[in-house]
């Protein structure tokens, strides 16, 4: 149950950190600034939650696009993103290793926090999401929130995977690393623009939610297998789309150059979500 809920929360994190709320620029058919965009339709968050921001002027839009098209700016942005993701993954690995070295700690965390353990990562992520000024300025508070999100997520993963063998987790990590490397290389080299596929992925995310609900209510091994396989395909798609959104080059959708923290949270969530699905599949195969 905890593992199923954790995978569901990872889906929530991916939706929160990815295309449903990423600050993006729509560059084709007229460059328009979309502060928050959904794969289904443009969504304006409640004014009570998000302060209204002035519309960007045409000159400012052009300036932002031109800045991101500069190789030096794009390279610096991607270096910041991938260095941040690397630190996140190293921190996650260290926390998981600590929990595996102290099994009693994982048991105590799950017994005291219960299902709250799998929802803890949402709190700092939502806070980071709704603090655009702090996030874009890379303030210490923004880094603190990102660190808390990573630590909570690592604690959750470590607790949920405590019953899996170390060899299995290493195989899942190696498979995830190979898939991430291959998909990143494809996203960086292909001429095909897939950055506008967020709507399709959002539909797949909702289908995954519904399937997970049916599986929790009615059970069935075949339904679990389908859900896990669909989850792997979904997060592989998110990795390609979210990577292309960082590239610039007049993609249909792309992230602002000063949003490297949210971009890092997005890629990190994609990677750990893919890892959890692969680890669960391998764990089922070993039973």
Automatic annotation (TrEMBL):
Its main location: membrane. It is a multi-pass membrane protein. Keywords: Membrane, Receptor, Signal, Transmembrane, Transmembrane helix. It is found in: Membrane. Pfam families: Bax1-I. The keyword Signal applies. The chain crosses the membrane at residues 109-128, 140-162, 168-188, 200-218, 224-241, 261-282. The keyword Cell cycle does not apply. One of its GO terms (cellular component) is membrane. InterPro entries: Bax_inhibitor_1-related. Residues 1-18 form the signal peptide. It comes from the Eukaryota. Belongs to the BI1 family. This is Nmda receptor glutamate-binding chain. It comes from Chrysochromulina tobinii.
């Amino acid at each position: 149950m905890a593992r199923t809920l954790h995978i569901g929360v990872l889906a929530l994190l991916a939706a929160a950190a990815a295309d449903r709320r990423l600050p993006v620029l729509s560059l084709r058919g007229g460059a328009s600034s979309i502060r928050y965009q959904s794969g289904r339709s443009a969504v304006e968050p409640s004014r009570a939650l998000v302060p209204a921001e002035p519309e960007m002027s045409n000159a400012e839009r052009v300036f932002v696009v031109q800045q991101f098209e500069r190789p030096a700016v794009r390279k610096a942005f991607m270096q910041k993103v991938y260095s941040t993701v690397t630190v996140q993954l190293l921190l996650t690995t260290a926390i998981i290793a600590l929990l595996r070295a102290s099994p009693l700690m994982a048991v105590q965390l799950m017994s005291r926090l219960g299902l709250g353990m799998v929802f803890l990562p949402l709190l700092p992520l939502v806070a980071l999401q709704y603090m655009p000024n702090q996030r874009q300025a890379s303030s210490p508070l923004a880094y603190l929130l990102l660190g808390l999100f990573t630590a909570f997520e690592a604690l959750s993963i470590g607790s949920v995977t405590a019953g899996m063998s170390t060899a299995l987790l290493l195989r899942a990590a190696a498979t995830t690393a190979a898939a991430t490397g291959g998909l990143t290389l494809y996203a960086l080299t292909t001429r095909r623009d897939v950055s506008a596929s967020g709507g399709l992925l959002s539909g797949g995310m909702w289908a995954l939610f519904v399937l997970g609900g049916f599986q929790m209510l009615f059970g069935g091994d075949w339904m679990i297998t389908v859900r896990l396989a669909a989850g792997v395909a979904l997060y592989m798609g998110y990795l390609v789309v979210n990577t292309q959104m960082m590239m610039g080059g007049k993609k249909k959708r792309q992230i602002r150059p000063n949003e490297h923290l949210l971009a890092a949270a997005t890629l990190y969530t994609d990677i750990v979500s893919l890892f959890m699905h692969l680890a669960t599949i391998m764990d089922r195969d070993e039973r």
